[in-house]
Each structure stands twice: as C-alpha cells, then as structure tokens.
Design a protein that fits this description.
2 copies of one chain form a homodimer. Chain A has 231 residues and is an alpha+beta fold. Chain A contains 5 helices and 13 strands. The relative contact order of chain A is 0.11. Chain B binds a DNA duplex (15 and 15 nucleotides) through β4. Chains A, B: Keywords: Cytoplasm, DNA-binding, Endonuclease, Hydrolase, Nuclease.
Chain lengths: 231, 231
DNA sequence: TTTTGAATTTCGGGT
DNA sequence: ACCCGAAGTTCAAAA
C-alpha cells in the first residue's frame, strides 16, 4: 500500500464526470491496484476512486496542467471499462509504501441471515404451537423468508427484515396474495417480523390483517446455543 | 489526518457484530474524527469504520488482549448511537499526521438529474413532433420522470434510468396502469429510456408494448449549449 | 427534520 | 457468468 499526501486536482470520466479542485488530499494505492482519494472529512467513501483491474501511469503534466502548476500527473485507466482518473499533483507532502499482506477478512454476525436462522430455530416466537414448514420457501415471485404452520394448522408466511419498512409490508402482501391462490396452502396469514418496525409500516400491516412481531436479536442470540462461537 | 499502519485486531459492535483477526492494516483518523480501517485490497469500502460524532480513547489493553500480545487499545465510541469499535494494536509500522484543510468538494456531472434535464431539453429524441408536458409529473404512486405528447397528441410517459433494469420497467408499468385510468390522459404509452438497457429489461418492456430508447449522454451533452461549463 | 430514491452503489449468495 | 437482494448501506435533494 502506497500512501501519498499531496496537493492535487482530480478528474474522473467514466460512468459520470467529476472534478475535484486543487486541494491537499490523501491518495491511497492498494496492492491490488485500487486507487482511493480521501479528503480529511466526510464519510468512509472516498471522493474519487478506481477499482481494479487498472493501469497506473506516472507521467509529466500536459501543457495546460503544467501552466497551472502541476509537477506530476497520474493517469489511472480501468482495464475493462473506459473509466479514467487523472490526478494532477502540485506538491507532495508525504509518500510512503507499506507491506500489509492479505487480510484474513471480516467475520459478521447479526445480519438478516442470522435473524432468519434464529427465528427458524425459535419458531414458537411466532406464537405457541407454531411449526416451521421451511425457510426460503420459493414462489414464482421470490422466496418467502419463513413459512410456518400455526397451532390450528393454518399456514403462516413470515417476512423478515432488520428494519421493518413499508416496502417490506408490500412485499409480504404480494406473497400473501399469491400463496392464497394455492388451495393447498390457503388460507395463509402473514407476520411481519423485524428488529425495528416503523410506525407507518406497522399501521399498514395491521390494516391489512398482517401481524407485526418485533424481534429482540440479543435475546434470540442468548437462547441460541451456538452464540458466541465466532469470538 | 492521522495515518497508522499497524498489526491489529478489530471488533465492532453496534447494528451488527463484526470481528477482524490480527493482521497488518491501515487505520485512518480524519480531522472530523472518522476512523477508517483499510486492508491492502478489496474496494473503496473500509473493513470497519466509525462515523462522527465520536470519542476516541487511546488506552492500555485489557487483560485478555494483553495476553494475546496487544500493546495499545483504541476504543472508538459513537456519541449518538451505541456503536463501538475496539482496535487492539500489536505493533506499529507507521504513524504520521498531516494537515489537509477543508476540501472544496466534488463537482458531479452526468447523473440521472442531468440526463433528465437534457432529455427534457431535447425532447424530440423521443420521436419527431414530441412536446414536453412536464418533468417529475406527480401521481399518487410517485413522480413520472417525464410526461410528453407525441406528434398525434397522445400522452407519453418516460421512465429514465442511467442503467435500465427490470425494476425500472416494472415502475413504468405501474405508472402506465395508473395514468391510463385518467380519461384526460388516456391513452398513455410508455418509453423506457436509459444509457444502457439490459436485454432482459428490453424484452420485458417490448413485451408490454413499452418502447425502449438508448440515450447517448455524450451526444446529448454535446448538443447542450451549457455543456462544459463546469470545467 | 423526515422521507424518498439514486449510487461510479458495494457485497454476497445462489443458480 | 448473470441475477437478485441486503447493506452498520451512504448520499443528496425534496417535502
């Protein structure tokens, strides 16, 4: 990884055009060729970047750039698309290179897939006597997160979200419309389950006869006997 | 901006849990407090990060971390949420600080808004004799990108995308269903316009009687007399 | 301030 | 390889 802190201007041309006026920024060149240009604020997203595979050419500024005071120009071109990044350097404050090696990678825990696994294992959270039919029950319009059977034997479709929003209710509604056309499953009721359910979504769901279920991930994780195995 | 290259392990706990095993990485601390942890590959997205406002505490490792060889521990806590990042440093390879100043910011050109403006100005790209009714024509289910009238006086609804995908066709279909219920507008035909239209989207669109229009942004920009004013 | 939709989205899983 | 959907989405603009 090469780290360059320098006063520079940047132009990107590809899927869009973008221009960065002259200022001091960090230019990061990763081992795989990625180029990232960061300012000293904002978020984790760089101001500009290029993804590999690419070619990086360090050259002399063209006439216009030189007239404006550029002393070095990097031309970064994507090997696959016609994206191009041009960095005109005016002065360098820092330039260092480092060997980092490959990263073992991030281990995540607590995403929707985990919620789904936990809810399938603790299916009675839906209500006493509920039995799991299956996860990711395929339909023509996509997979229903969880299909279950309640104590009375009626089918229950569960839409699972980390954050329950209107579109999740719409999604479940479409599934319910479809599933209720199947005489073998009919009648199918719906449960909208999420860690957090927005008031609007709750109102819409209940208006459509869909039950809402707020999930406590930490509690569910506590019940799960495999909890903590990652750390 | 502070740049630290060090062998470290990282734990994040917040909206999810995540763990990074011991490896050499770049830890970037921006002037606004943001902390970014980058590996030497991947994309522009850091492995872990924390957004401001936050507090950064440099302390000594706890017993467990020290036993594993940690010599310094950073605790980064969000001031607003309960997100927390813990970095256990085992050895430092580089540590430098730099004054960058505020960034003048990025100037973009060529996003969907530009496309829409250009297409509205060059409405005859839809076909000879087309007239603009209005941009962002509001309906109960959202704004239609462009509403126009063709040479015969029939209404035309345009859905505009940078990259034309199935969901864009679905969106336009919903608009057309709605607009065709309005006796004042009926009959309304649809045009799906995008810089790139995926084959599946094109097939679906044409199957529904929606015309597809591929837009050449550079050509449209060339026609626009305000082109190039940004640079 | 909340909400809505785009993004040079990225990223991962499945087919 | 493409397709689909989640994301600690982030981000900006509009309501």
């Amino acid at each position: 990884m090469r780290l360059v802190v320098a006063k520079c201007s940047v132009d990107y041309e590809g899927r869009l055009r973008a221009h960065l006026p002259l200022a001091t920024r960090l230019v990061m060149v990763k081992a795989d060729g990625s180029v990232l240009i960061h300012s000293d604020g904002g978020s984790y997203k760089p101001l500009n970047w290029m993804n590999p595979p690419l070619t990086l050419h360090e050259g002399t500024p063209d006439e216009d750039a030189a007239a404006l005071g550029a002393v070095s120009t990097w031309t970064v071109a994507s090997a696959k698309t016609d994206d191009k990044l041009t960095i005109n350097f005016h002065s360098f404050e820092h330039d260092s290179a480092h060997i980092l090696g490959t990263d073992p990678g991030l281990i995540k825990d607590g995403v929707e897939a985990d919620l789904q696994r936990l809810l399938a294992e603790q299916i009675e959270l839906l209500g006493d006597g509920h039995k799991l039919i299956r996860r990711e029950y395929m339909t023509a319009i996509g997979p229903v997160d969880i299909l279950a059977r309640d104590a009375k034997g009626a089918t229950v479709a569960v839409e699972l979200k980390r954050r329950g929003d209107i579109d999740g209710v719409e999604q479940l509604t479409r599934y319910l419309d479809l599933l209720n056309r199947d005489p073998l499953l009919k009648p199918v009721t719906g449960i909208f389950a999420a860690q957090q359910i927005k008031p609007q979504a709750r109102t819409l769901a209940e208006d459509r006869g869909i039950r809402c279920l707020t999930l406590d991930y930490d509690a569910m994780r506590g019940v799960d006997d495999s909890a903590g195995r990652l750390f």
